[in-house]
Write a structure and sequence with these properties.
This protein is of the alpha+beta class. It is built from 5 helices and 5 strands, in the order ββαβββαααα. It starts with a strand and ends in a 5-residue tail after the last helix.
Amino acid sequence: MISLIVNGRPVRVDAAPDKPLLWVLREELGLLGPKYGCGVAQCGACRVLLDGQSVPSCVTPLAEAAGAAVVTVEGLGGPEGDLSALQQAWIDEQVPQCGFCQPGFLIAATALLARTPRPTDAEIDAFIDNVCRCGTYPRIRRAIHRAIHRAAAAPGQG
């Protein structure tokens, strides 16, 4: 049994330590946000936060997540199902076309904003190397900037 915290909830998983975290999340825990894209950590569709760092869950063994905090796209919002500022900005900017890669982009953008609260377009492009076959990159940048402005405008938030 391997213990970890997933989206704020302690869980124990009976799976092989070398099983990719992606499959544990999807098959064992029913979290379908992280997607299987390439299987070699190149596309970003499977990204999750592991102790705050954006990682490709398709190549991250479960053992690496033992005792760690894992956040999937399902865990980005508030406890009452509220959307995060970033998720709301994604909707406002109508970012997704097919939507397949968007959970990974939301995770990568969340990690970026935790590290660099006011990134430039160049910093966004350098940090987020996920692949979107629909080409929604300009809308992704706009959504990130919208989330920054929304957070700056909210009283008592930064």
